[in-house]
Amino acid sequence: MSNYRPLSEAEAIEYARQIPELFSPGAELVSREIGDGNLNLVFHISEPSTGKSIILKQALPYAKVVGESWPLTLDRARIESEALQIEESLCPDLVPHVYAYEKDLALTVMEDLSDHVIMRRGLIEGNRYPLFAEHISRFLANTLFFTSDLGMNQQAKKLQQGRFINPELCKITEDLIFSDPYRDADTNNIEAHIRDAAEQIWTDNELQLEVSLLREKFLTKSQALLHGDLHTGSIFIKPDSTKVIDPEFAYYGPMGFDIGAVLANLLLNFAAQEGWSKDASSRADYRQYLLQTVRDVWTGFERSFRQLWTESGVDVMFSSEAYQNHFMSELLKDVFGYTGAKMVRRVYGLAHVADIDKIEDTAARERAQRIALAIGTTLIRQHRKAATIEEMIDIAAKSVS
Ligand code: SR1
Ligand code: MG
Predict the structure, then answer these.
(1) Do 209 and 73 share a structural domain?
(2) What is the domain-level CATH number for residue 21?
(3) How does pLDDT run across 177-208, given as a tens digit for each residue?
(4) What is the pTM of this model?
(5) Which residues surround ligand 2, an ion (CB under 5 A)?
(6) pLDDT tens digits, residue range 228-252?
(7) Same domain, 173 and 257
(8) Any binding-site annotation on 115?
(9) d(CA 202, CA 216)
(10) How many Å lie between the centroid of ligand 1 and the Cα of residue 105?
(11) Do 84 and 124 belong to one domain?
(12) Ligand 1: does its nearest atom lie under 6 Å from the Cβ of 42?
């Protein structure tokens, strides 16, 4: 921590200049701080005369979204850079390349993806990404399979787990997803017009039991190295390319948490459509596209994961078809629960999503919030009985019929 200081734009340029073989000696470099997430500084450094560019991402010693009153470990920069490198070894086309990690400054130097857009923004603008489901289901299948006891040496997995104990960032998730939205916590950020819905959830004992079970699994089920925060703001996209960024929440947890994060964010956009597509027919059409993407992500994941298991499984006791079927059916239940929990927290927990919050019309925003809560709470309630992805699609479709 002793040599740590948050960089200014000028200091970021000086740092970038020293990276060997990147920019021309003495070149004019331009820096822009472009971080719009909740936690970090992000500098875009470019050399206008050659068009070369990189990203410098620096962790701050506190959560930017709240301020210095919420201290946060700088070790998350190490966790992020190591997770990115593991992910790159498993699916090189789906993550940015890491050029360097500087421990003292909690700084990662990585590939610039400015020719992509943040997927959340792309969905808000109504764009379609025909390759996304194939890309993200391959990312999920490879990263989850090859870091689990199914696909990697089981002693090496235990050692790897030790490098990804991430208590401070896990606590953020434990609080903001699996605790605070279910009680009248100070961190909640509740618009007055939906307070009644939040209050109903605070007294719903059956729902709270289901959330407790999901929380328990998040705390104890060390199945695979998760990205840990795989929402559509952690995905850079363009029609022919998908890049997963920001795995600073990486830790060993239940696989369904990452899959659920992707599906939840598709469904949050589904819930928000009244704010973004003004006529009923284009709205229905885009919603169909989102539901088809939900279906394709799960079915693509299941197909790839089963294939990896059959071709590369490391454990003879886990090699029977009966065990594989049991595993996949339990995983789908977790996916339902985590999809639901990740939706509820984004409606009135601490950190919301632009898909809903940026809807200017209050009545349309409220309808989006209530649709998201209806889908989320139903998924949580039904998660232990879930048997097919079609049930999730039906729940979403019924919420707007
Ligand atoms: C204090 S951090 C709030 C949220 O931002 C991150 O992206 C995670 O989702 C976290 O819960
Ligand atoms: Mg993030």
Answers:
(1) no
(2) 3.30.200.20
(3) 999 999 999 999 999 999 999 999 999 999 99
(4) 0.97
(5) 37, 246
(6) 999 999 999 999 999 999 999 999 9
(7) yes
(8) no
(9) 19
(10) 22
(11) no
(12) no
